[in-house]
């Protein structure tokens, strides 16, 4: 999507994607991803919004870097938690820092490998699926270029059968294979079915949808 699309979502507070509490798949499957006793491992959260999940990761001892286009999201993230962040305006990123939790306001595609050299884990909820088909390959290629070998990713996708031209886009399990198999070992952890009376399927008028959770390890 164009940057303007997302800036408008944030300025109009049209942020239905924001969960406001810890994601259930993160809660249930993070322990399988992070090494036991290695909670200090750095976590990268691409297209992070103001996800509460980053506080959850921070509270478990992880250092966290989130990247997010919208400065509104970055400001809200700290303000809504009643925490203060040190703000360093800059190009291509303005950074917001609190303890070892950093939000970088700017474009994901401007990140360079040196920026994430201490990162060992990635949490992708509503990042890949926020991007239209034409951008997903570029997203995965760029992510692969900037994270170290051995990095593990918790990836959550969403699949449904109707063609919808706005995010969240449907990403099938086959597409996950196509996008990641060349550079990652892929484990499909679980699939969750959303019935037609689930708030998301209802809102979109879908018969049903499925969420899939993957653990990817960069070779
Ligand atoms: C669907 S939301 C998901 C946010 C978050 N992951 C969550 O679970 O709530 C996608 C987010 O990606 C941000 N975004 C879109 N394109 C971006 C880019 N190129 N660089 C950084 N952030 C981007 C948007 O502003 C939006 O907040």
From TrEMBL:
Signal peptide: none annotated. Keywords: Cytoplasm, Methyltransferase, S-adenosyl-L-methionine, Transferase. One of its GO terms (cellular component) is cytoplasm. The keyword Coiled coil does not apply. One of its GO terms (biological process) is methylation. It comes from the Bacteria. One of its GO terms (molecular function) is thiopurine S-methyltransferase activity. Its EC number is 2.1.1.67. S-adenosyl-L-methionine binds at residues 10, 47, 68, 125. It holds the Pfam family TPMT. Belongs to the class I-like SAM-binding methyltransferase superfamily. TPMT family. This is Thiopurine S-methyltransferase. It comes from Marinobacter antarcticus. The gene is tmpT.
């Amino acid at each position: 999507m164009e940057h303007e699309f997302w800036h408008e979502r944030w300025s109009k507070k049209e942020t239905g994607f924001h969960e406001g509490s810890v994601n259930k798949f993160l809660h249930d499957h993070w322990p399988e991803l992070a090494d036991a006793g290695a909670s200090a491992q750095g976590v990268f959260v691409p297209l992070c919004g103001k996800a509460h999940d980053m506080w959850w990761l921070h509270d478990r001892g992880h250092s966290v870097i989130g990247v997010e286009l919208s400065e509104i999201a970055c400001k809200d993230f700290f303000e809504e938690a009643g925490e203060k962040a040190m703000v360093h305006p800059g190009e291509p990123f303005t950074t917001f820092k609190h303890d070892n939790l950093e939000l970088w306001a700017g474009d994901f595609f401007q990140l360079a490998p040196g920026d994430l050299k201490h990162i060992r884990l990635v949490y992708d909820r509503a990042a890949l699926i926020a991007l239209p088909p034409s951008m997903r390959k570029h997203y995965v290629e760029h992510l692969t270029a900037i994270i170290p070998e051995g990095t593990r990713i918790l990836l959550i996708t969403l699949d449904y059968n109707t063609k919808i031209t706005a995010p969240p886009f449907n990403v099938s399990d086959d597409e996950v294979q196509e996008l990641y198999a060349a550079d990652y070992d892929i484990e499909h952890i679980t699939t969750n079915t959303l019935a037609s009376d689930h708030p998301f399927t209802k809102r979109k008028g879908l018969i049903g949808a499925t969420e899939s959770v993957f653990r990817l390890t960069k070779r």
